[in-house]
Amino acid sequence: MSEDNAALALLKFYVDAGVDEALDEGPIDRLAPPEPTPEPAIMPEAPTATPQARRATELTSRDEITRNARAAAAGADTLEALRDALAAFEGCALKKTAANLVFGDGNPDAALMFVGEAPGAEEDRQGVPFVGPAGKLLDRMLAAIGLDRDAAYISNILPWRPPGNRSPTDAETAACLPFIERHIELVGPKILVPVGGTAAKTLLGTTRGIMRLRGRWFTYESLHMTAPIPARPILHPAYLLRTPAQKRETWMDLLEIRARLDGDEGGA
Predict the structure, then answer these.
(1) How far apart are CA 10 and CA 32, in angstroms?
(2) Do 187 and 79 form a contact (C-beta atoms < 8 A)?
(3) What angle do CA 68, 91, 155 make, to 5 degrees?
(4) Helices in the chain by DSSP H: which ranges?
(5) What is the mean pLDDT of each successive set of 10 residues along the chain, which is 268 residues long?
């Protein structure tokens, strides 16, 4: 058999055997012992920060972010300037994952201001607070006491949506707190309504849960306020959607808020 015929016969054998790809130019002796591999050079380990040093760096960074936030917020004399300051602020990583900055909605001259926790998915899409299912319930709650969004102003502790609607971290809340404090100062409502546990605990500086806070009046004040503001925490509409039995307690809170509001307006 000629060499050409022998090569063709070998190729035919390979095809019949299912061989359809050559990985090397020459044959490999699979029975030969493997060649020794050189030992890798030992590189000196990079120094790692101690847990104490890492914590110190983290705390320093958080303190610096808070100082920057306070300076930016304090420099805003109008709501428009505050919105611009928030848009330029780089101290909160949520800005990079959110679709929109959610600043505020309603009447900034209203006597009543609601402050929630953070935007949800629909709020993030529209750039407006409380427009999803919880927002629609809040609108019905306002209507039940004869009010609407033209008679109230609405915002959140965080202006950007946490991914997956997770709870905000302490660092995210600390970074955004100076802005909502300045927001409240610029609006200057006669009554402040923290909506939900996170907003209530953050604004009132307490660790107590919303069930122990709702149904009571508190006072809210911040650094540049001329006088404290009466504050009445309420259950979050999102919680009420999941737990309709709690609507009665919220209805009582709303009646108290409306009565206080009417009393303030009557005395003005």
Answers:
(1) 24
(2) yes
(3) 95
(4) 3-17, 51-74, 79-88, 94-97, 121-126, 133-144, 170-187, 197-204, 210-213, 237-242, 247-267
(5) 69 64 60 63 54 49 90 96 97 96 97 97 97 96 96 98 94 96 97 97 96 97 91 97 95 97 70
